[in-house]
Protein 1
Amino acid sequence: MTFFFQIVIDAVSLGSLYALTALGIGLLFGILRLINFAHGNFITIGAYALIVPSTAVVATPFIGAWAWFLMIPAIIAIVIVVALGTERIAFRPLRGANMSSLLIASFAVSYVLDHVIILIFTGRPKAVNVGAELARHISFLDLRVPAIQLVTIAAAIILLGGLALFLKRTSYGIQMRAAAEDFDTARLLGVRANTVIALAFAISGLLAAVVSLIFITQTGILSFRMSLNLVIVAFISTVIGGIGSLVGAAAGGFLVGVASVVLQTVLPDDYKLTRDAFVFGFVVLVLIFRPDGLIVTRAVRERV
Amino acid sequence: MIRSVLLASGLAVALCIGGLVATPKASADEPIVIGQALDFSNWMLTYDGQPQRGMEIAVEDVNAGDLIAAEELGLTEVNEAKGVLGGRKLELIKCDTKADREQGAKCGAEMVQGGAKFAAFSCDYDMGGPAALQYAAAGIVGVSVCGSDPKIGVQGIGPTIFTMSTAANAQGYVLAEWAYKQKGWRNAYSLLDNSIEYDKSLCIGFDERWEEMAGAKLLGKDVFKQDDPSISAQITAYKAISPEPDVMMICSYIPGGASALRQIRAAGIETPVLTSESFAGQFWFDSVPGLANYYHGTHGNVFSPENFTADEKEFLDKYQAKYGEMPPSSHVYLGYSMVQAYVKALQQAGTDEPMEIVKAMETFNDVALLIGPTTWTADTHIQNRRPWTFFEAQGDGKLSFIEKFRAEKAWDIGQLKAWD
Amino acid sequence: MGSVGPLEKQLRRYWPLLSLAAILFVIVLVVDATGDVLLQRTVADGLIKLIIVVGIYVFMGNSGVLSFGSIVYMMVGAYAAAWMTLLPNLKKFTLPGLPDFLINTQLDPLPALILAGLVAAVVALVVALAIMRTNPIAISIATFAVLAGGYTVYNNWERVTLGTSSIIGLPMYVNMWICFYWALIVMGIAFFYQISRFGLALRASREDPVAAQAFGINIYVQRVIAFTLSGFIVGIAGVLHGHFLGILTVAAFWVPLTFITLAMLVVGGQNSLAGAVVGVVVITAATEVFRQLEKGAEIGSLVLQFPLGIQEIILGVIMLLIMMFRPAGIMGGREIPWPFGRPKPPRAAVTESVEAVEAAKPRAGD
């Protein structure tokens, strides 16, 4: 029984991490039809900001050495600035371009940011120890779980809840929801595009910063390719949930995380290696039988 | 538009021609060219970077008549003549593969065109392969700076291809024997990161040798992937194993390996952990605060100054003078040793003809290069029993030298012979 | 066009193809004349990318649906060719999971190449039949999910693909000229497809799906046809890739290659064949120039040298700038115009749509 609950917590915490990432990607996708591969770079940059920029082999902590109540806002601020910067410099001039142009632009941004990281820090992985106390296991009921797993779950609940409140209760939130459902109509109804989009980027930056702090607390190591896989999984997740639906994105991320842990646990050894193939296979099935995702919004129903 | 396209390609053409007309001809005072098709800027730099520097220092040493261990290697005349084959200088030519396969193949061709008859290629079989195939096709000697896949040699890429490193399976052998004999462990567990071939061969070697030894048991194994953000499911499964294993063998590399280890230790699992060369030193120790019960086997010692041999010390002094820091991993010795090996083969063969060099290299039998005794034979172009250097970390944030240890049983490359 | 002779009429009709072929021919000829092996490799590599990009274009350009996952058909083609061309002895030991008939046969390069292309086409056909019914966004993401799934499977299917290891021993028969011939063939296929009834029908559906459906165009069928053809072409690129490098690794067929090829297509302009070709030429040339600059180039008395690693940053910025200032790509959806008098109407796409609707008319009554 303990084993079962242990698995449940493993699954829920990984699901939460994916959900947070998926939400950051889903938000921009809903509003702009932008598959933002640079979202991974936001996460990477948040993590690299913890150490002193240098090409030295052994990293020296920078923001990572600050007290947590300074470190967390600092990292969030940095990532939000980067997110807003990419919006202003790269994506705003492309407003209204088609999906493939946007995709390629986000690829170009991601490519540039990757190599800026390489240029400053080299391609060598770097170690950083942040939140070691959180990484430790604590006793929780009858279980021993890493505190970071509980923090991840809590962060997901708080951020999702906060975002939901924001979207439901505030004027900007409502505008944003309108924009995610149908951007063109929303604009006609007086939603201010620049504000809403900047806000969306800021929120996705916030989410990326939180993910990067959780990620780095968990792994303790930086590399410029650290978030590629995370972003691919999150992107797939937004699709399972339903494109343009924020609840769907979060639910999709959650589902994929849970499925990965369950597959890792129940598959026989020889098939464990292919667990991702099952996940992707499931995505294809969802797309075939429920092309609008598990949660349908108006936006995807053919504009044809 | 078309005009600018043509202009751009024209420019490219012009630049290339400008850069590459010189094809040196062999003559008594021409330098002997050594190629380096390595990653100078991308993620493979972690592995290629150190051997690259080692080669750099070795070439300077040869040209200055200051080659380390010249006497033991029978190369005093090289130092006297300040060059090989009666005073010819060595010269390095370089090409950045950027950890890209097409670029790697191009770099291989560039080395051949640049007149190299002996050239280095990337550590990894997959990444270095394209360059190595170019060397093999041109019939020049190609040596991997630290590739550990046995398919690199005669049985795989071609008869002129070698590697400085020890076969991953053989690394698994020596780790298993050391853990069994020197630490007295009997119950093992292996955790495999199945994203690259090296890790798989390492764990196969370890598991195979472990189960051969009397009384040794493999209590379990599991897999994870290099870029998994969390291995909590594997940890949960590990905790269910009873009795607790004496040693956990982790076949992975940095960064994923460090991440896994951090999570394992954070979970309160203090089982001794054993790793091999791919954990490349101690630069990542911040990831696992207070790392203890950690055992690491690798090529050589760059970490414990009190245990340096005279040759190692001489080399590291030169390294520090040139680069202003200590090398982060012992892979650096592989680069220096590669040039030592080439110089010895050149002197022995009396010519730089690649086939003669290959024959000379195949006569090497425990030749004491900086990296350690090196043996190549007609069918084994990789090390399968070179002594392995063991370290431990016990919460003090650094690797401390334990001993050099040589496996009793050599891993048999025989199963690959059918490839010919 | 009454006053135009039949020859000129034909020339005009095929001009978009002929002009591109001529440009490539000049490049290849000049590079051949330099005798520079490295440059020839660069061009061969560029031509392989060109075949991939033209393959992606056949589906993406004509249908307007973003295809994210074409590289998986390249992988399928490359491995299929390897299974057919490797020495039987080698296969018996390294790829024991192959069926006996594959282990025991060793085909010549050309039949192997065509068969491998067909294998890739069949796989693409099966995928297309499954996914092409849904909406465009779901299709493009499904193509990616198929890539990710296929990648995982090949990466773990040790007995047939060697898993994470590399297959070596592929005959290295591919050189610049062979790549050039195949680039020509593939461009020809793409061109004749796009002016065929099928191509025009699909292009019409791209411009206005509702009208196209009203004229009786079955978008599903048209997309399936284009996707299958695209899979065949990309599969051929995979074969050439394998036999050019002599080594095959699953890891090569993943997100980076997907992106760079998509970037080439979109930068050139995804709506025309000329866009596909120009995108490849521009990015390949730029990469090569920067690579030389990284090594240090003398221009007159000036020595220009980039710091290591900066070339990628500049390349990324250039791609971004092109996207900003020419969101429809360098060619903006146009083919190369007929240079001698009487310009065609400027918006080729419009004309095509009209032609397409006409072409589809007879079917409307079915």
Protein 2
Amino acid sequence: MAGHTGGIFALDQEKYDADEQVKIICLGDSAVGKSKLMERFLMDGYRPQQLSTYALTLYKYTTTIDGKTVLVDFWDTAGQERFQSMHPSYYHKAHACILVFDVQRKITYKNLTNWYKELREYRPEIPCIVVANKIDADLKVTQRTFSFAKKHGLPLYYVSAADGTNVVKLFKDAIKLAMSYKLNSSDFMDEVMRELENFELEQREESSDKEDDVIKEEKAKVA
Amino acid sequence: MAFVAKRCGVKFDPPSVVLVYEDGKTKKMRQRIMPVRNFSKFSDCSQAAERLKNNVRHSAYLEGVSLRQLERLHGVLRDRMRGRTLKQSLASLRLDPDQDLNKLSDEELARKKAQMDELFEHNRKRKDDPDFVYDLEVEFPEGTGHETCSWDEDESDDGF
């Protein structure tokens, strides 16, 4: 498994640099309902792309924000541990994160800590929404405060993929957050990446300049 | 209905599904043993369950038994063929809220998901339902009267 990490980059992630493209990742334990949420939001309009090698399902969505067409890629990831080595590529260039737990299973709430910690290692600044899913199983959970979200200053949404409560709102808000992050990003890692890219470009230009000089010199000699 | 299914179970040797039912005419309780044929540790449980449910000799008796239950019973039989104990396979059929499902194999995870799907389907609002609302927004105001979640009580392992 480990050797595959680099391979996923073959899935052209460069496109997420374009202004009208955003990438939103869905994180959380196995069976918290990530795919069910995606499907409820997209209804019949979804064309998922299963990439089983990467333990990943891609959902494409097109919307309009302020008169501009925006293409959204939702990365629905696998929670299983054996796909751990895939995680760096999930985080790569993501603009927002939807972090889901199951209100019926305490362990999925406890594991938010691990997911969030890992997310922040790769994407220290991107907006993140915490989602309490399956509230249809027991509406009383909406009376409870889950301190994880508050503690990290994150919004908490009570949703149900089954009856649809707040699902559309969740995704619409996530897209807005992803767009505003993208347009106003001051993410340190993004800055560093940009610097590095510019640096490489400059170097390349410099070296080609030198070649030119050499050629000119040679030409001069010939002349 | 001519036969009213009461209880369902399995027998390991030979692998069979056992049904306890009431005969609609005589009102007597009876037991029916249905051998599961061509079934190995590599077989697909949902296919095998379907085969049994549609079997000409058994289908009338199994009308009141859901396909899902038959699937689970086949799962127990197959687990046995794979060397798992009854206790282990029953545990895999139960939902334990503290079990970390991230550690399961695809197949075991699918089994858990199938169980969760029962509630999901039960509570599901479909597009054709008369009261379906696509963008259903409900506010759950935070504020006074909120219980703190007992899940937050053991905070010690949460320190970052």
Protein 3
Amino acid sequence: MSGVEVLLPLEIIDKTINQNVWIILQSNREFTGTLIGFDDFVNVIIEDAVEYITRNNDDDDIVMKHHGRMLLSGNNIAMLVPGGKR
Amino acid sequence: MLPLYLLTNTKGQQMFIELKNGTTIQGTLTNVDNWMNLTLSNVVQVDNSEPNEDGKVEKITLEQIYLRGTHIKYINLQDDIIENVRQQINSNNNNNNNQNKRNSNNRRAYNNNNNDSRRPYNNNNRKPYPNRRQYNNDNNYNNNNNNSNSGRGGYVQHHRTSENIQNELNQTFLVPQQQQQQNHMQQQQIQQQSVQF
Amino acid sequence: MSETVIQDKPIEQREKQQQPKKKFEGPKRDAIVDLGKYKDTEVRVELMGGRLVTGILKGYDSLMNLVIDNAIEYVKGLDDQVDVGKEEKRELGLTVVRGTVLSSISPVDGSNVIYISMEE
């Protein structure tokens, strides 16, 4: 057995607070920004968010740069990647 | 016959599932839960049943899979499944009866401990979803916690007659697990059989 | 007095244990899959909306939120896009997958892709 401890997903998200995060929705839309906070539903507050629409072949198109803080509903969030977009 | 009950008692059977996104999955059912989440083994998954340019269809074989119930469009079961499960219920019913005869004294004593003088139907406890989320009004009678203030929404007991409940039991083919009186039980079983055959 | 009680109980329990061989059971409330057995192995996760992610399962919780390391997302046929046919993949690294959008999860170990020719 390797490692008794299990990484808790919400703990990982908690550790990325005040760092960059890459948030991928169920649709082809993505956000990056600084994670300010989140709740149990993983509604998320991010700061200075950049919103992308991804396409299969092209490079990602930047749709919008948001200033200040943004509340992103957890409803459509599929994945969160600590550290921001690669 | 409640769908989840049917499904729960078809463990070990082959089935064919289509998901909402059109993916089809074939495999042996290993487990089901309350939300129709499934686990299957020896799975063949087909994401796209359209043949490619070579006239071939891509299939993925998996040893196991867990499926979200909310993502299921439909499940194809084997043809004779309903009959099989019904027989299973019957045999179980008989087992229960025997057991009840043996333990009738204990049962009665146990039942009297419940504060069910107000709630005479509690002993018809058929427990499809014991003490859990209530799926319809019928099931409210099965709540054994007996706390009227449990915040689950009100019961409307006084609309019920024992006859009503008898009928409902018969219609759903479900087996009451506790019986207050043996006579009552036998009579009921006769009625169930007459419906089933 | 107490003797009878002590004797009675085991008998009853024995009967109960014998009985449920072919018990007619209802659906379960608790977890039907133990993600612990997939921990530190490669899993294949499909999400609602059409995303497919593979990677090493590092963690999970009871809501089936997942921590996946070295995650690779295969971008193919998102619901609102034309299926390009050619699969593209991108590496996400350490990723948290929301349990709410999980459609299916299966171990990669022991899985195969096969091609069947259709004759109709």
